[in-house]
Every structure is written in C-alpha cells, then in structure tokens.
C-alpha cells in the first residue's frame, strides 16, 4: 500500500506515471500439477482440479483456461478535482488442454499472445488457436444450446408462445416460470429446465396424466404478476388449452376453462408445489 | 492537494476493503457441508444452486460459479451481482444422479 501511495502521489504531481510490474507466470501451479500428477486425467478430474474453463470446443475435447498477468500499471490525473484514473496493461496466458476421444488428457500447452496487449491470436504447436479479445467475458454455453441437448425438449427463449409450432399428435405444456430464482421446472419427476426472466419452456407430453412442478427455495410472492403459469394443450395443428393454472405461495389456484373440470390437485408441503392434469386426450 | 487526495483515496479504500472471503476448505466444511459424495442428489443441488454455468458429458459434470457475501454465504453468481469472490463448484454425478465427487475451486 505504501508503494501504491507513492505511485499515486507521483502521478498526482506529474500527471501520469507508468509502473512496470514484475512478471510472473500465473499458469505455474496448474502446469506443475498437469506435468507431475495429472497423467492421463479424466475430464472430470481436470474440472475438479481447475474449475470451469474459459473456453470449450463443441466436442469438449479442448479446454482453455485463461489468465491475465498485469505487467504495466498506468495512473494519470487531470487538472479538475477528482479527475483521476488508471489501468493495467496485461499479458494473456491461455492454458490449452487437449483430451482424447475417451475424455482423458492427451496434451497441455500454454499459448501466449506476443506483446503486452491481449488482443490477438495465440496458437499451440498442435495448431489450436485461441482468439483473445481482451475484455470479453468468459464464454458460456447459451441456455438454448444447453437445453436443446436434451431430446424431446424445446426451449423457446426468444419467441412469443404463439410462435411455437404446434406438435401434431402430442400434448404440449408451456411453462412460464415466475421471476423467482432459482426456479426449476419438472415434469413427471424429470427436470426439463430452469426459469428464465422473460422466457418459457415447452415440452411434449403424451396424452394421459402428468405431474408438473415448479420448484424454488425462495417463496413465491402471492400475486398474479409473479406466479408461475402452466398451460396444457392437446390438439393436432392448433393449441387448445385445457387448463390454465397458477402456482402461488400458499396454494394452487386453477381456473376452469370452457366447461372443463378443474383438474385434481395434489399440493405438497413446503415450497414444493405439485399439480396434476388428467384426461389429456385429443 | 485535492488531486493528491483523489489519487490517494482509492489506495486507502483498497487498504480498508472488507474481510477476505473464506478459503475453500472453510467454506466447504461450514456452508457446503450438505454436499456429500454418494448421497446428495442432482435435484438437491439444482434446488440449492439453480441454473448451472456449464455442464459436461451430457450433464454428468455440472459447474456452478459462486459468489460469496457475508450475508448469504456461497451463492450462484448469476443471482448475486454484488458478490465479492468467485468460486467454481464442480459436481460429478453418477448414472443414478447421485453425487460422485465434488470440489470447490477458488478462481
């Protein structure tokens, strides 16, 4: 802190100062473990040790861990009161792990971009290149990709419910989870997805009795604006709603539609709320 | 003098930052003790942590990014924008959706 104070004082007096910082290799500990202990570690063992990679290829056979090592600290001050700023120029290190077809570690290598500024492309000797965009956040799988990986499930996050194509010969359930986090949606004991602000989940159901649940460890405020809504329909070519249901904090409210009987409800204690819809036939 | 004070202020604030986040071992024994290899189910983990940051091997391996605050303890970073620390929680499940191994990695 004392050194930083002196630097700040110098910057204040002369307007701008650049301080070179001692370089170090932030990948050292990981590389040492990989070289001495990891052997042909499995994908799970690598993740358990190193955590979430910053980049992963589609086949999950290339895992990239990025580090930033600040090399130059620049502080500046203007004439106006409070006109002060600073930034660090960093060097990027990308630890690239290659896995074989069975998901075991095949090789590891650190790729760095020449120069201090992170923008650029770094390649390993095996020809794996990583584009460094400097300030971009770690890459994350999108919700769409993650959920589409499950069969028989459609996740529509960017289109209104009307745009969802009806699935002939099957019943559908549309879920509009309330903005309560984290809220997971389950059908017949199977997790079909997680609630997302402004999004909804669509799954196909065979005619019959199904149990749906919206689970959240947080209490759901008992108001229509935040209730979970579930709509079930079983029509070929067009969607006809059999029931519109809302799940509240302390119970389940069901609205009758066009003479349809109120479906039997099976509420459970605590924050877990179940509901059942019977007689879903075409 | 005002300019000096303005430059020194961030330095002083850095020196007066809050307590450091707990080490992973302390956090695991104190607030993540409900995670038990061979016993905790995928459902229990999902109910506690919600949407994973990433999954591998067809959801067999699940990763959560956790922040930490004194008030809430470890919590999914997506729901905790004011988090002061980041950990990766790695959960490996078996074919019965029971936790096989887990680790908390400080980032």
SSE inventory with pairings:
The complex is a heterodimer of chains A (282) and B (107).
Chain A: H1 2-14, E1 16-20, H2 28-38, H3 43-50, E2 55-56, E3 62-77, E4 84-99, E5 105-112, E6 120-123, E7 129-132, H4 143-148, E8 153-156, E9 171-176, E10 184-187, E11 190-194, E12 200-205, E13 208-215, E14 228-233, E15 241-247, E16 252-255, E17 273-280
Antiparallel strand pairs in A: 1-3, 2-3, 3-4, 4-5, 6-7, 8-12, 9-12, 9-14, 10-11, 10-13, 13-17, 14-15, 15-16
Chain B: H1 2-15, H2 24-30, H3 42-49, E1 54-56, E2 61-69, E3 73-76, E4 87-93, E5 99-106
Antiparallel strand pairs in B: 1-2, 2-3, 2-4, 4-5
In words, what does this structure look like?
The complex is a heterodimer of chains A (about 280) and B (about 110). In chain A, strand 2 (about 55) and strand 3 (about 60-75) form a beta hairpin. Chain A is built from 4 helices and 17 strands. Chain A has about 280 residues and is mainly β. By secondary structure, chain B is of the alpha+beta class. Chain B is built from 3 helices and 5 strands, in the order H-H-H-E-E-E-E-E. Chain B has helices spanning about 1-15, 25-30, 40-50; strands spanning about 55, 60-70, 75, 85-95, 100-105. In chain B, strands 1, 2, 3, 4 and 5 form a 5-stranded antiparallel β-sheet that branches. The longest helix of chain B has 14 residues, at about 1-15. Residues about 10-15 of chain B have low confidence and may be disordered. Chains A and B meet through helix 1 and helix 3 of A and helix 1, helix 3, strand 1, strand 2 and strand 4 of B.
């Amino acid at each position: 802190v004392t050194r930083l104070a002196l630097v700040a004082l110098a910057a204040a007096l002369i307007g701008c100062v650049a301080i070179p910082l001692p370089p170090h290799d932030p990948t050292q500990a990981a590389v040492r473990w990989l070289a001495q202990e990891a052997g042909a570690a499995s994908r799970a063992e690598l993740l358990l040790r190193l955590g979430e990679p910053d980049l992963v290829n589609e086949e999950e056979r290339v895992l990239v861990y990025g580090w930033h090592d600040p090399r130059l600290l620049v502080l500046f001050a203007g004439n106006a009161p409070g006109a002060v700023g600073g930034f660090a120029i960093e060097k990027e290190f990308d630890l690239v792990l290659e896995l074989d077809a069975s998901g075991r570690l095949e090789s590891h290598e650190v790729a760095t971009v020449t120069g201090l500024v992170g923008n650029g492309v770094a390649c390993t000797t095996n020809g794996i290149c990583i584009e460094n965009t400097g300030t971009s956040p770690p890459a994350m799988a999108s919700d769409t990709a993650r959920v589409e990986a499950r069969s028989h499930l459609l996740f529509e996050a960017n289109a209104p419910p009307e745009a969802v194509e009806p699935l002939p010969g099957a019943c559908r359930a549309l879920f509009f989870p309330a903005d309560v986090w984290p809220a997971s949606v389950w059908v017949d004991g199977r997790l079909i997805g997680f609630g997302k602000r402004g999004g909804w989940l669509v799954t196909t159901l065979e005619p019959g009795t199904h149990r749906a649940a919206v689970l959240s460890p947080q209490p759901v405020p008992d108001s229509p604006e935040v209730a979970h809504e579930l709509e079930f329909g079983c029509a070929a070519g067009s969607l006809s709603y059999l029931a519109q249901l809302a799940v509240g904090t302390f119970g389940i409210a069901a609205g009758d539609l066009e003479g349809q009987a109120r479906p039997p409800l099976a509420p459970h204690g605590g924050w877990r709320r179940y509901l059942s819809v019977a007689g879903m036939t075409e | 003098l005002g300019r000096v004070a303005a430059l020194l202020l961030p330095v002083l604030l850095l020196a007066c930052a809050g307590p450091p986040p707990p080490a992973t071992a302390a956090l695991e024994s104190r607030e993540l003790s409900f995670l038990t290899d061979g016993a905790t189910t995928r459902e229990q983990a999902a109910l506690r942590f919600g949407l994973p940051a990433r999954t591998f091997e067809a959801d067999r391996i699940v990763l959560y990014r956790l922040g930490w605050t004194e008030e809430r303890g470890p919590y999914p970073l997506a729901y905790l924008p004011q988090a002061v620390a980041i950990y990766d929680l790695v959960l490996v499940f078996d074919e019965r959706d029971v936790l096989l191994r887990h680790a908390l990695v400080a980032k």
